[in-house]
Amino acid sequence: MKRLLAAALAAALVLTSAPAVSHAAVTDQQTDNRTAYEKSNGEVVSVIEGDTELSVTKAADGTTTVTTVKDTKTTKTLKIANADGTNITSFASSAFKGTKAKTIDLTAIALVKLNKNQFKGSKAKTVKLNATKLTAKSINKKALKGSKIKKMVITAKSKKAFKKLVKKLQKSGGKNIKYSFKKAK
Predict the structure, then answer these.
(1) 55 strand-pairing partners
(2) What pLDDT is attached to residue 49?
(3) Cβ(61)–Cβ(87) under 8 Å?
(4) Which of 88, 101, 136, 143 is geometrically suited to a Cys-Cys bond with 78, CB 3.0 to 4.6 A?
(5) CA 6 to chain centre
(6) Which residues of the chain have pLDDT under 50?
(7) Which strands form 44-49's sheet, in the order they lie side by side?
(8) Rg (CA), the chain
(9) Are strands 151-156 and 178-183 parallel, antiparallel or unpaired?
């Protein structure tokens, strides 16, 4: 009797379960997100890039601020790049809160500023940063406060610019971070 009841419940579950989503549906959703992003101006729009979901706000001058970053899967490296039509220039405060990736790679984005509590709440131990357009004045005095970062690789135009950035980053809460220089091409 129990086996018959279990078989009937299993059959009912199979019949009422939702159909599997095809890869084409995900691709169409990504296209819709990009189209919505291109049309938006000043409103928050979600953009899905691979395993990462970004909520972005586009300003009137064409710059983009990422307000939240979410891992859709548990990835080891979170690599963020400019999507079609986006020009990411900064991340909002605590944008990486809740990310599970051990490495955050921002080398494909030329950041203009670092905001308060930039990596707070993230489990990242390593951050790779493109600082070719970043200046010491554009780094918030609490930019690295509350972060668990152990290593930061900074791509800069010159060693002199790198040293200025490191000095400011250390003042902003990154005293125990090991900084390394990479020459920009």
Answers:
(1) 46, 68
(2) 66
(3) no
(4) 101
(5) 45
(6) 1-2, 4-37, 39
(7) 44-49, 52-58, 64-71, 88-91
(8) 21
(9) parallel
What pTM did the predictor assign? 0.72
Token couple for 178: 């090991």
- Given the structure tokens 């940063």, which residue do they identify? 129
What's the CA gap between 67 and 134, in Å, rounded? 19
Distances (CA, A) of 61 to 26, 79, 175: 30, 25, 35
Q: Are 153 and 180 contacting, i.e. CB atoms less than 8 angstroms apart? A: yes
Q: Taking the C-alpha atoms of 137, 179, 69 and 79 in order, what is their torsion angle to the nearest 10 degrees?
A: 120
Query: Nearest 10 degrees: CA dihedral of 25, 27, 28, 32?
Result: 140
Write down the pLDDT at residue 76.
87
Handedness of CA 144, 117, 123, 99 (dihedral sign): negative
pLDDT in tens, 39-91: 455 556 666 666 777 777 877 777 778 888 887 666 788 888 876 667 888 99
- On the 0-12 / 13-18 / 19+ scale of CB atoms within 10 A, 14 is exposed
CA–CA gap between residue 66 and residue 91 (Å, rounded): 5
Is the Cβ–Cβ distance between 69 and 57 less than 8 Å?
no
Give me the sign of the Cα torsion angle 143, 61, 134, 155: positive
Sheet with 151-156: strands ordered across: 77-79, 103-106, 126-130, 151-156, 178-183
